[in-house]
């Protein structure tokens, strides 16, 4: 009889995910956010998924690459939205509101609080320079939009980005996502933070801001 094709699991699937790659990221998210990067091994990640360690390397070449993928997942959706907003004719207030709401929403949509990964000392290593550049670019977009509202060099312009990121401290890390899948609807917490970001700038709230944001998010998926 011919041998089994592919890379068999050690056990039946035990993680959430549409494929093995997503299951690996789910397991790594839990382990990295609960016990840290240094004390998490690829063997532990593979065992949590129920696959052989060699199979994990088929999807990710290293633990560092898994960590980088998770870090980038915390900001890449907002970067795409920022690019789409840059090509639209909506007001600066609407664009900023949508960015804050989207960033907070996607940080709430994951089972594990992956935003915490940025707080780990290893995240500031030069190995993750690509992520640092993306994060700096995103922060600059937030600041530039805020300056369109309050003027250049106003220190308040730095606040909306940090207001969006404050959701990391507001959510649990218990394996249950506090919000639905990113893009389906805006969680109340995300709406609250987006409103707060404009309030600190003394900017009026745009009409139909939630509906317009969801339309923009859905257009990114199409």
Largest sheet: none
Q: How many runs of DSSP E, i.e. beta strands?
A: 0
Structural class call reads mainly alpha
Quaternary state reads single chain
Q: What's the SSE pattern? A: HHHHHHHHHHH
Q: Please tell me the overall pLDDT.
A: 89
User: Which overall shape is indicated by the principal axes computed on the Cα atoms?
Assistant: elongated
Strand content: under 5%
Helix content: 55-70%
Distance between the termini: 45 Å
Total domain units: 2
The total count of helices amounts to 11
Rg of Cα set: 19 Å
Low-confidence stretches: 1-12
Question: Can you put this structure into words, describing what you see?
Answer:
58% of the residues lie in helices and 0% in strands. The protein has helices at residues 20-35, 42-49, 53-59, 63-73, 76-86, 92-108, 129-150, 159-165, 167-170, 188-199, 209-221. Helix 1 crosses helix 4. It contains eleven helices and no strands. The protein has two domains: 20-69, Arc Repressor Mutant, subunit A; 74-220, no CATH class. It has 222 residues and is mostly helical. The chain is elongated, with a radius of gyration of 19 Å. The model is unreliable at 1-12 (pLDDT under 50). The termini are far apart.
Give the tags.
single chain, Arc Repressor Mutant, subunit A, 2 domains, 11 helices, elongated, DNA-binding, Homeodomain-like_sf, transcription cis-regulatory region binding
């Amino acid at each position: 009889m011919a041998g089994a094709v592919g890379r068999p699991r050690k056990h039946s699937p035990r993680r959430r995910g549409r494929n093995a790659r997503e299951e690996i990221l789910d397991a790594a998210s839990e382990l990295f956010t609960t016990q840290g990067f240094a004390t998490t091994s690829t063997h532990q990640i593979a065992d949590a998924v129920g696959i052989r360690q060699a199979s994990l390397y088929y999807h990710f070449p290293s633990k560092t690459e898994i960590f980088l993928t998770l870090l980038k997942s915390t900001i890449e959706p907002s970067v795409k939205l920022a690019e789409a907003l840059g090509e639209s004719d909506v007001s600066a207030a609407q664009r900023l509101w949508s960015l804050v709401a989207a960033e907070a929403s996607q940080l709430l949509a994951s089972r594990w609080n992956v935003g915490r990964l940025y707080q780990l000392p290893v995240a500031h290593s030069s190995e993750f320079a690509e992520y640092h550049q993306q994060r700096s670019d995103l922060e600059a977009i937030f600041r530039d939009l805020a300056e369109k509202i309050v003027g250049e060099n106003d220190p308040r312009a730095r606040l909306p980005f940090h207001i969006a990121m404050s959701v990391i401290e507001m959510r649990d890390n218990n394996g249950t996502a506090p919000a639905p899948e990113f893009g389906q609807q805006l969680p109340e917490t995300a709406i609250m933070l987006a409103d707060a970001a404009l309030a600190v700038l003394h900017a009026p709230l745009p009409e139909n801001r939630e509906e317009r944001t969801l339309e923009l998010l859905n257009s990114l998926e199409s």
